[in-house]
Amino acid sequence: MFGKTIDYRLLRLCAHARNTEGEELRQLERDLSIESAKARFEKWNRRLDNEIPIDPAMRYLEVGCGMGEMSLALAQRGCRHVTGIDKDPYYIEIAKRSARKMQLQDKVTFECMDVHDLPNEKEYDIVLSHEVFEHVERPGDCLSRIDGVLKSKSPGGGGKIILAFGPLFHSPLGGHVNRFFRFRIPWIGVLFSEDALMRLRQEFWRPWDEAESFEAVREGLNKMRFSEFLRYVEEIGWITERLIVNPQLKRWPALWRLSNLLLRVPLLRDYLAVSVYAIYRRRAQVPAG
Hints:
Elements: H1 4-12, H2 21-31, H3 34-47, E1 59-63, H4 69-76, E2 81-86, H5 89-101, E3 108-112, E4 126-130, H6 139-149, E5 160-165, H7 188-191, H8 194-204, H9 226-236, E6 239-245, H10 253-262, H11 266-272, E7 276-281
Helix pairs in contact: 1-8, 3-4, 6-9
């Protein structure tokens, strides 16, 4: 806003002195249970109007599974062929341990793998990704790779991709940096210098991470705009079954209607789309001749 030096000094007044990073990771491990996994899955499913398919015969892939909550919830609900992948070995070990503890290891498999390395010979009826897509490197390539492992023929047509992600970088809650400020600062990633934010991030939240840009942080932030995401989907050619933006506003009907109205304005949508919940279907391939 005012340059990296002044931005740093202004924002430093709003930062808190307590580093909670280690505490948050320990809390996540302690709270990882089938009950918490089910609760997170149900919340996701409700926001998609309960349209996530549950079928023991289908093959599921969760991209960016983290500690495996969504994959474990699917297995607990009766899905017998679930695979979760994540490129962080720390999270994968927690997921494997949780599967054994919950006695679900015969239904769900966890692999340490980057989405771009998915083998071509495997196909899935359903590919899911929850609160990951704003982090992945090369999001357009990621969606294309997912398209490559979706079945071209499944019940109801082609395989489905089910997404939930956000907050998007350019939205009021974007930047993933509000955790080390005393209060949320709207559009912080857009209004303030990246140099200032990265310096404060290291001082007040993750002193061990010396990344100098959002893209270089451990979890990565791709700064993808909502309009970019829509373009990627259009280029792939997926059929839209559900596209719900900012579903957290449903509790305030007037604000929900206003949000949907403003999101139709191309110049505004990138700065108002906080979270995206979507279901797409791959076009079924028609045999030649």
